[in-house]
Predict the structure.
Amino acid sequence: MNQSGHVSRRSWATLLATIAMGWSLLAQAPEFDLLIRNGHVIDPKNGVDAVMDVGIAGRKIAAVASNLAPSRARDVVDANGLYVTPGLIDIHAHVFWGSEADAAYSNGYSAVQPDDHSFRSGQTTLVDAGGSGWRNFPQFKEQVIDRSKTRVLAFLNIVGSGMKGGPVEQNLSDMDAKLTAMRIRQYKDVIVGVKVAHYSGPDWDPVTRAVAAGTETGVPVMVDFGGHTPPLALDELLLKHLRPGDILTHAYAHVSGRTPIVDEEAGKLRPYVLEARKRGIIFDVGHGGGSFLFRQAVPATKQGFYPDVISTDLHIGSMNGGMKDILNTMSKFLNLGMPLADVIKANTSRAAEVIKHPELGQIAVGAEADIAVLNLRHGAFGFIDVSGARMPGDQKLECELTVKGGQVVWDLNGISRPLWTDVKGSGSGR
């Protein structure tokens, strides 16, 4: 600008050149941070079951379409021959890990750290099933939820001190529906339901109190049923005490003090189990270290009774046994005849519906970019149940890539990375 206040021609030229350069750089900027191409997308919520491309910008899904140009993306993954699904959801895990003595799954040694197990199995959401109660949920949130890359949600135990085992879980005076409901309302974004487990008394009080808390807050109740002395009736639980949307976990178990869903002598599914499903009871696998038997699952699935949700009951006693991980558990049901799309649904959109987080478990424009890229391997495999029995199978799921919030957090074979010959410079120094 000269003394008269006018902008000189040279200044105008510089300004216009700067603007033009900015527009040029903007035009060159990639539209997508990551593009997953040529994969078979299975997104049950949105009815997608076809080869498609998925574009990701920031933390969100930006495009789901055919033939998205690689030039539109900063990084490109070729998923040819692989399945692209929403990030998997496990509604029954135990991740309130800690070092408190004799605390079991509630800040104790029996639980596991979520990030150690989630991403390598395609999971982006783990739901802790009752490790914490209203007394110690704030500790669980600060210690685990807030420090994990995995999205961690929770079923709050009806026992105020959580799942510490032994006499603690038999204390009816610590099962407070009002205080449980109060804690759920306080943390309604991360507490998704109420859990009942391990009570061995002859009465229905824990279930009644959990259902009262669930009714007051509008969340489901998950029940780990069995071990009562004398035994309580499964049909009464399913048809009288639980509400539509409540969950029976360990569906294919045969445990002490609980009638199994299949009459093993007759090989038939008990009629009231089908009646319970019709009234809206959710049946969850909850494999664990002691709660999944082929002698229950095989006849049940032959009669068309597949699970609504497939979960692991992940803890130190199950992760190196027959359960192993979510993909091994899902693969068992593939080999039992459950269609692949239904298996994926059970761990994505259906699981999201059950915990009342419908924003999860989908691949849609605007949704959080949580994605699993899975390889369906074919060959000779073996699967083990909690009794040590083996079932042969010819297909098995394996996780190639996991994306959480737009970031690659697991890459088994480096399909999201450039060849080493194309990389310049030294490493990160770590």
